[in-house]
Design brief:
1228 residues; alpha+beta; nine-stranded mixed sheet; nine-stranded antiparallel sheet; 39 helices; 33 strands; metal-binding
Amino acid sequence: MTRGRIRARLRRSHFHPFSCMRPRTEDGKGPHPIEGPGYSRVVHCNQPRMHRRKPLKYCSNYISTTKYNIVTFLPKALFEQFRRVANIYFLLAAILSLTPVAPFSAVSMIFPLAFVVGISMAKEALEDWRRFIQDMKVNTRKASVHVADGFGYKTWEKIQVGDVVRVEKDQFFPADLLLLSSSYEDGICYVETMNLDGETNLKPKRALEVTLPLDEDEAFKNFTGTIKCEDPNPSLYTFIGNLEYNHQVYPLDPSQILLRDSKLRNTTFVYGVVIFTGFDSKVMQNSTKSPSKRSRIERKMDKIIYILFSLLLVISLISSIGFAVKIKFQMPDWWYMQPSKPENLYDPNSPVKSGLAHLITALILYGYLIPISLYVSIEVVKVCQAKFIDEDLKMYDEETGNTAEARTSNLNEELGQVDTILSDKTGTLTCNQMDFLKCSIAGTAYGVRSSEVELAAAKQMAMDLEEQDVEISNGSSLKNHARNSWENSSGAPEIELETVITSADEKDQKTAIKGFSFEDNRLMDGNWLKEPNTEVILLFFRILAVCQSAVPELNEDTGIFTYEAESPDEGAFLVAAREFGFEFCKRTQSSVIIREKFARPGQLVEREFKILSLLEFTSKRKRMSVIVRDEDGQILLLCKGADSIIFDRLSKKGRMYEETTAKHLNEYGEAGLRTLALAYKKLDESEYNTWNNEFMKAKTSVVADRDGMLERVADMMERELILVGATAVEDKLQKGVPQCIDKLAQAGLKIWVLTGDKMETAINIGYACSLLRQGMKQICITVTNSDATSQDSKQAVKDNILHQITNASHMIKLEKDPLAAFALIIDGKTLTFALEDDMKHQFLALAVECASVICCRVSPKQKALVTRLVKEGTGRTTLAIGDGANDVGMIQEADIGVGISGVEGMQAVMASDFSISQFQFLERLLVVHGHWCYKRIAQMICYFFYKNIAFGLTLFYFEAFAAFSGQSVYDDWYMLLFNVVLTSLPVISLGVFEQDVSSEVCLQFPALYQQGPKNLFFDWYRILGWMGNGLYSSLVIFFLNLVILFDQPFRAEGQTADMSAVGTTIFSCIVCAVNCQIALTMSHFTWIQHVFVWGSIASWFLFLLLYGMVSPIYSGNAYQILVEALGPAPIYWCSIILVTVACNLPYMTHISFQRCIHPMDHHIIQEIKYYRKDVEDQTMWRRERSKARQETKIGFSVRVDAKIRQLKGKLHKKHSTLVTQSYASSPS
């Protein structure tokens, strides 16, 4: 509590002259004109009862991300089920089965449909229940709300408009609030909006001065006021309203608004009044309703159903026409049909009527062409696949204890067809931690630890050098001569590479310090005192420690100060300064205290620096300065900022180290590090006083261009600087992010980054995760006058953007270098115009041509619009991944939405289709599970249509021999068991367990993933091929059996086969043929598949045996059929073997030809693994792995390759020079 009170006395607005220092209302700023449409909201502060009746009754604070509720579940879920074409057909068939024309009983048609639809609806209900549970976790959070006798706790869902809420440090805001006061004296508070716009920098907010006295619970006892403001809208960065309080009207702007799902940081508490609740809040206004998503395979499956339904209609028409002809011309001669007593269905006098009635019979009879069990089998398979995803230990995060979760199983196969990934940045790619890694001081580079990019390049170079050593050792004497010279020249680089690797390997052996990964004994433990330019190094450390706006907090357990900084970079600098011996330990209203460890031998000296002025960092300024007075009375300006900005402001005398520092900065950039330059200048008292007068005038001015005035005055001071050095921090990406992006790029996936963060931050992250690299040509589409209001000026802005897009597209087309890569970078304001209908297609065409795309400063709505543009414009599968509420729209709009279940809220997870705990797990989710699920579902569906065509058409063939009478050649029980028992388990095992290659091989050969986006296993060629295979098998099964059994003796006594014997033999052949076919289709066998495949065949014969033992009353003509009729007949067993072989021979021929002549990628890998070449011939295995990378221009590997080309170029030049010198010096 004591620490909180000390901090509360700080007037934090002193640190924010640009964003928070505003003139008082009394000084001339009047209220906003609030009238007209869009400005109708009225909020009665601290009077929530006023909002319980219309017209002031607003929506509750309850939120829901579910697809259904109790009322809508039944109609919406039924609609979802009957969007499937096959279900509509079976519904009609079930209705018709109640009529006399049905060939089967009504129960046999209604029960399967009810079972399939019921299972699917139950799965939908379960998945939506999970969403409801997660919604309730948010809705039942507690918040401190003012009631009649003080503050008490309410759940979020019960908070109303007008409530006064107290929010503590590190809590989320439960609704959109107007800030009334904070724990700081001047009403400043700090808000983290990472969950909304992805920015990690804390944003200062400031209450109106008139409400600052409301800083304790008792102050709200008699507090009332009225807010009139804009209606709910999705704009996160704007707000217009007025507060009527104490008979005065005060204007409100975004700096007083605290948005739902942002978090209070660096502030003990705030008080606020609720303005927008629930779906009226800005974050929820940016969300969209949970969509119903269907995979591409499922949508294509509907088209196949249409084809089969057309086939069903054709053969039913043929059958009904044939039946009418038979009734008309032949039935009068069939005395046993009693033609003199015709029935409605068999009336020779009305053949058309009989034919139409028979059409219904045929549609139901041949319905086995359309597999009703396909849907329920797919549901079972997808649930099992989802379970495997949930239980995958390789996607388990030990830190959080979270596993991957398939929140919906409808889109499993879609994971294997992704073309474009649209990713959030903050919390998804990054973990918001900066590590101080290297620095350059007075032209000398310090820091020996390597970045991830340097380490990978060094290892690869070492491998290349080793391979070259092997090649050279087998060469001629001339080559040996050159090799000796080269060895002499490359000895140092080899030692250097080895050192880099060793230092990285020893990293884990030392105690890790968060934010500090620097290693160099020259600066540590006071050794910098032995370095030349000691005064410059001392100044460098002091700039790190003093040029900041953080607050120190002492950890009483460790005795070490930690820092609440506005940005991760600033925190890393303070930790670095502390480790170097310059510990920032105290801040007062006007000074900072630094403990200098090595200023005097063996003593700890506290130095006080008086803060005279602080010029904060903004994205436009790209620098921060602080003007201080040291203990000697000297006034200093200490500045840190982007190197391009600082270098432009250097004096002639201050450029002593510019050339070497610029070289170091370039090297740090190539190593993927974020850099800043540090500079200073000394000021005279008079010079400072003159400038300060101008600065105070600008701060207190009430003109419209106040910010511009402030910037101009600040720019006057930040000139004639003296360069001190530069810093290089490593933006700590989430674990494995560069490697994951690298593998995804090698798999042929395109990656877009959509972030609310600043452009320079987004670019730095692009470098860190290798979406950008040195040498890549950046296309920045920006607009200078985005605030244009008139129609003409807006058109001018659009024309300018279109001109930039056209020029960029033309530049890409003219590029002839095959290694050239382009990156498109665009900000949110420009994107507003680029997404309009008359320009969006040109923008998309340009973006598709670029290797990587980064959209920065985008709103949640824009994220969703970009996702929709990519999805609809390219026609390919999109995946969106994010972790915050600002990503919900994007996640819901994409074909697949993936949420990161991190520490920041659960909104993204609740809206997602799949959730993972780290971005790196996306690689396994797509490259392994996505690849498997796609191939499993595709093969499963193709096989399903094959077996149903093979079975269903035999019914039609038999009809031609039975006068199209509607008589089935099979027993009813055979037909019921065919899809339910005899062929269901093998196809489910195919969908659940099939693996063309192992998970390790999937990751080693990422190009295998492209089989999904190219749709190689579910294109029309393959679908029609399987349907043709089914047609061929049906012809072979029926007619080959007919030839064998037509007039051949079936028993020892010479009898021929009757209909039941023929039907059972044909059915036996179908069961054996289709189960052997699925065995040939499988690449990976487990004992489960063996049991299911061969067990299904065995279960048929077991059923036949047991069914034959049942009384003839139930078994009919099948009584003892196996024991007495079929079993003893050799022709029965010979027919099964012959027909099964004949049916599968074409498939065997096709697959053998394909593997030998035109093998697919997985065929080659399977053969290598089978002959153990991956173990015996590592060189070949590495060569094949290097081939199995899609050509890409982004990713860690490409960046390393570029670094290697650069290093090899340097070595080659050095080598050529030394060889020339060697030959020149050798005797002729």
